[in-house]
């Protein structure tokens, strides 16, 4: 039987010298009807380019297919040559036969049009429906992706819907014409882990319902287990290994696949947490950072002149302490208040109530440094592109009234060396460094002032998985070397498991569970923690069935003067407690 | 140096660069008085001479050498343009940064004033200011400067607002960097590119506005030469002595073309997204 899609020796080049700048170098695969192929690789591996070549969208991205063959079996059984097809022919294929969803649902939709009109457009274009028919079809499409209250949501504009809802809308649009092949390019990367689980469940269910084939592109090999039949691992534009799911996951042959499966952080339910925790050893030490009853509220005003009618309770009574040399991970989903907590600790956000004390660290006399420093999520945005690395590292020194003298320069050089950057980095500019190197620079900058506490706000989230592992390793080494306390903000449970001694789970502005990392991850007590942990994809859960959950996150907007009820805590073991649930 | 090389490897940048370069040279010569003849000496016997070997561009009604007057006029017009754009850049940058950085009321007040200024057509506003303050070189500099300040304020405020929300500004705050340090090193330094483009384009507009003011007799005062004034003087002699109109007219046109081409080129060169595109 001829496969639905057959790609052989696909080559794609960019720029003027396309032969020299080949990004995809001879990729071949077959995809049968109803089958799901997962393409796994890191950024720059050519996985997205491969996908964009299939529906020839690559032509618009500056790339050119330089060689190979691609044949699609159409619905009527005829073979369609995707290589030689003209643009008008391809327009008929895209959407109708090959649907596609992208990584960022927020930017893939037009912000000024209602989602209803955007879904209707694909029905108008491909099926010639108009007026009421199109509206009805759009409502059905939303029902199909399990968006509750679909008729009303049609009138919403994209900003009124959450990321997960928008990705469902994108899926609804991609499936509008019942394509027989769906290309999903990192469809869940921008989403929270519980939302990711729901989108994965939805895709699996839709696949079952419609019998469509799917090409699923991801950097997370853990995600593959839940959905793929076949896996192709890509590195540097080549497929280094491909085969059946079980064969790849259990019996990987290529060293790169083995590296992805072993060295990269994977979630293991608390069985690989760090064992160098200090909490039990000496109970007498002062905490490096103590946060007491932190409350951050943003007042809501309906207009400039009116008084506040309510407030967004971003952080609602958070307490924790952080010992020197310890990592406390704050995990939660977007909008849970974890970043606001971090920013409040640093004074970037004004806290409404609460107190901080930064423990007395034996700081040498010449250092009048701030004891808390921060490393941000996006290594591309957190370094000023117009300043040399020397100026960037000098900034904290200048800011605290210091001089950039021989001693400061020596410190720059030693820190750069310590974080693993080349010697000549000082005269260079941020754009000359890769994402991982930039994050190392940010770490070096944060350490310039000898802080006792470093806040790491999703510090490795923007990095490629194998770079992530190396930066985590560096962080662990630096921690033991300088006795740093880390406040590690993250949504990624696999990463948290690698670095945390203790974990605080935050939900709707409140800590719902806090305690020893092993204990929290292996025996979660609060229902939200359980849900969060259950949603983490792992390579051990194959074709597991996720429950579709269409509940929305509760609103954090409260009326003026609202105070949450004081928490009741239940203690489990020595260092593990969870908020009692009603 | 790298900038110059980039301009000259860019198609329209090369043309614009050469035009602006030649004009600058002529302007300097004109200001230094290194002209073929004295621009205000009246050669009574040679009145309204057509271009010849002695008077390359002919003479005007008073027997003054048009080529010399053109050089002096370019010098004069460029002086006004440069000073007025410098004024607008400085004022606009300060106001734009203040609006973006201080936010709230400052932002509201500054931007509403700019909106009011922008509501007037450029030449009308300049006329108004000159009429109130009296004609002259310095008043036209200030008037043209004020007219183009709102544009610079907007050009600065927008990107400054987005830079202000960038993580490196947050990072700077966590070190305890002072506001002045953040504004100069993190905001201003990143605004150099858009400002450069804007300055080049504004030079073209202010040349045109200066010519307009002088044409209406409110800019440079006779007997000093300026491009607008020369055009104005040529009006009644258009048919008998067309060279009086053609040369200053062409001079204005080509200079505007040059600055616009250069501005477009700079915009391409300084836009990081365009950097890799073949020129």
From TrEMBL, chain A:
GO terms for cellular component: plasma membrane. Its main location: membrane. CDD domains: ABC_NikE_OppD_transporters. Residues 266-286 are annotated as: Disordered. Keywords: ATP-binding, Cell inner membrane, Cell membrane, Membrane, Nucleotide-binding, Translocase, Transport. Residues 5-261, 300-533 form the ABC transporter domain. InterPro entries: AAA+_ATPase, ABC_Ni/Peptide_Import, ABC_transporter-like_ATP-bd, ABC_transporter-like_CS, Oligopep_ABC_C, P-loop_NTPase. SMART domains: AAA. It comes from the Bacteria. Residues 275-284 have a biased composition (Basic and acidic residues). GO terms for biological process: peptide transport; transmembrane transport. It is a peripheral membrane protein. GO terms for molecular function: ATP binding; ATP hydrolysis activity. It is found in: Cell inner membrane. PROSITE patterns: ABC_TRANSPORTER_1 (PS00211), ABC_TRANSPORTER_2 (PS50893). Belongs to the ABC transporter superfamily. This is Peptide/nickel transport system ATP-binding protein/glutathione transport system ATP-binding protein. The lineage of its organism: Bacteria, Pseudomonadati, Pseudomonadota, Alphaproteobacteria, Hyphomicrobiales.
TrEMBL record, chain B:
Residues 74-263 form the ABC transmembrane type-1 domain. Pfam families: BPD_transp_1 (PF00528). Gene3D superfamilies: MetI-like. SUPFAM superfamilies: MetI-like (SSF161098). InterPro entries: BP-dependent_transpt_permease (IPR050366), MetI-like (IPR000515), MetI-like_sf (IPR035906). It is found in: Cell membrane. The chain crosses the membrane at residues 12-34, 78-101, 113-132, 138-156, 187-208, 243-266. Coiled coil: none annotated. Keywords: Cell membrane, Membrane, Transmembrane, Transmembrane helix, Transport. GO terms for cellular component: plasma membrane. It comes from the Bacteria. It is a multi-pass membrane protein. Signal peptide: none annotated. One of its GO terms (biological process) is transmembrane transport. PANTHER family: OLIGOPEPTIDE TRANSPORT SYSTEM PERMEASE PROTEIN APPC (PTHR43386), PEPTIDE ABC TRANSPORTER PERMEASE PROTEIN (PTHR43386:SF25). Belongs to the binding-protein-dependent transport system permease family. This is Peptide/nickel transport system permease protein.
């Amino acid at each position: 039987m001829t496969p639905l899609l057959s790609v052989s020796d696909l080559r794609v080049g960019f720029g003027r010298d396309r032969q020299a700048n080949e990004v995809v170098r001879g990729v071949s695969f077959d995809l049968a009807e109803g089958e799901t192929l997962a393409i796994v690789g890191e950024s720059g591996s050519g996985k997205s380019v491969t996908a964009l070549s299939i529906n020839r969208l690559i032509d618009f991205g500056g790339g050119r297919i330089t060689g190979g063959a691609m044949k699609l079996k159409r619905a009527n059984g005829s073979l369609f040559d995707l290589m030689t097809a003209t643009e008008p022919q391809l327009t008929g294929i895209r959407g109708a036969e090959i649907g596609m969803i992208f990584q960022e649902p927020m930017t893939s939709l037009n912000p000024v049009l209602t989602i209803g009109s955007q879904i209707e457009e694909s029905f108008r274009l491909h099926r010639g429906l108009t007026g009421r028919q199109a509206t009805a079809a759009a409502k059905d499409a939303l029902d199909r992706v399990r968006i509750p209250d679909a008729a009303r949501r049609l009138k919403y504009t994209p900003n009124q819907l959450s990321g997960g809802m928008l990705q469902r809308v994108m899926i609804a649009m991609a499936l509008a014409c019942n394509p027989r092949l769906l290309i999903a390019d990192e469809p869940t990367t921008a989403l929270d882990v519980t939302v990711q689980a729901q989108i994965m469940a939805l895709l699996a269910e839709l696949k079952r319902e419609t019998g469509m084939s799917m090409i699923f592109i991801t950097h997370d090999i853990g995600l593959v287990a839940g959905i793929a039949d076949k896996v192709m691992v890509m590195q540097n534009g080549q497929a280094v290994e491909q085969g059946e799911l079980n064969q790849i996951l259990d019996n990987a042959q290529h060293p790169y696949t083995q590296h992805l499966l072993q060295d990269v952080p994977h979630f293991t339910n608390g069985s690989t947490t760090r064992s160098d925790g200090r909490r039990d050893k000496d109970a007498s030490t002062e905490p490096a950072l103590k946060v007491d009853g932190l409350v951050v509220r943003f007042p809501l005003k309906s207009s400039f002149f009116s008084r506040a009618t309510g407030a967004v309770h971003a952080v609602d009574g958070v307490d924790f302490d952080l010992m020197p040399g310890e990592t406390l991970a704050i995990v939660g989903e977007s909008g849970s208040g974890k970043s606001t907590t971090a920013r409040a600790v640093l004074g970037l956000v004004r806290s409404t109530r609460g107190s901080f004390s930064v423990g007395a660290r034996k700081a040498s006399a010449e250092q009048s440094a701030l004891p808390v420093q921060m490393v941000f999520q996006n290594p591309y945005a957190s370094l000023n592109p117009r300043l040399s690395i020397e100026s960037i590292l000098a900034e904290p020194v200048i800011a605290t009234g210091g001089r950039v003298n021989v001693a400061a320069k020596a410190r720059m050089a030693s820190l750069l060396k310590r974080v693993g950057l080349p010697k000549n980095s000082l005269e260079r500019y941020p754009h000359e460094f890769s994402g991982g190197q930039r994050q190392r620079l940010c770490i070096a900058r944060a350490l310039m002032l000898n802080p006792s506490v470093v806040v790491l706000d999703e510090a490795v989230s923007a990095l490629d998985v194998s770079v992530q592992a190396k930066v985590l390793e560096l962080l662990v080494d630096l921690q033991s070397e300088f006795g740093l306390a880390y406040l590690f903000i993250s949504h990624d449970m696999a990463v948290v498991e690698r670095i945390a001694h203790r974990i605080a789970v935050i939900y709707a502005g409140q800590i719902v569970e806090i305690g020893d990392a092993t204990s929290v991850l292996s025996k979660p007590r609060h229902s939200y923690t359980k849900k969060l942990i259950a949603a983490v994809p792992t390579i051990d859960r194959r074709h597991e069935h996720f429950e579709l959950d269409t509940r929305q996150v509760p609103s954090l907007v409260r009326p003026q003067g609202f105070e949450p009820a004081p928490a009741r805590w239940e203690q489990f073991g020595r260092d593990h407690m969870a908020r009692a649930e009603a | 140096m790298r900038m110059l090389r980039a301009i000259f490897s860019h198609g329209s940048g090369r043309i614009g660069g050469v035009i602006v370069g030649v004009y600058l040279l002529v302007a300097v010569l004109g200001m230094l008085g290194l002209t073929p003849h004295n621009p205000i000496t009246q050669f009574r016997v040679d009145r309204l001479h057509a271009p010849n070997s002695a008077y390359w561009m002919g003479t005007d009604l008073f027997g003054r050498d048009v080529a010399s007057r053109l050089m002096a006029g370019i010098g004069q017009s460029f002086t006004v343009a440069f000073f007025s754009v410098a004024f607008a850049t400085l004022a606009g940058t300060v106001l734009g940064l203040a609006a973006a950085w201080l936010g709230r009321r400052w932002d509201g007040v500054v931007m509403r004033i700019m909106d009011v200024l922008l509501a007037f057509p450029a030449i009308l506003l300049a006329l108004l200011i000159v009429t109130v303050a009296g004609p002259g070189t310095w008043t036209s500099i200030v008037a043209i400067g004020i007219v183009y300040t709102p544009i610079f304020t907007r050009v600065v405020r927008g990107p400054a607002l987005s830079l202000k929300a960038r993580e490196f500004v947050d990072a700077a705050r966590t070190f305890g960097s002072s506001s002045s340090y953040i504004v100069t090193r993190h905001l201003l330094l990143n605004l150099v590119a858009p400002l450069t483009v804007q300055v080049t384009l504004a030079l073209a507009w202010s040349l045109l506005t200066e010519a307009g003011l002088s044409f209406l007799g409110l800019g440079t005062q006779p007997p000093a030469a300026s491009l607008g004034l020369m055009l104005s003087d040529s009006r009644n002699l258009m048919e008998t002595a067309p060279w009086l109109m053609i040369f200053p007219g062409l001079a204005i046109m080509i200079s505007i073309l040059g600055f616009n081409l250069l501005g477009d080129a700079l915009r391409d060169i300084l836009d990081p997204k365009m950097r890799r595109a073949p020129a």
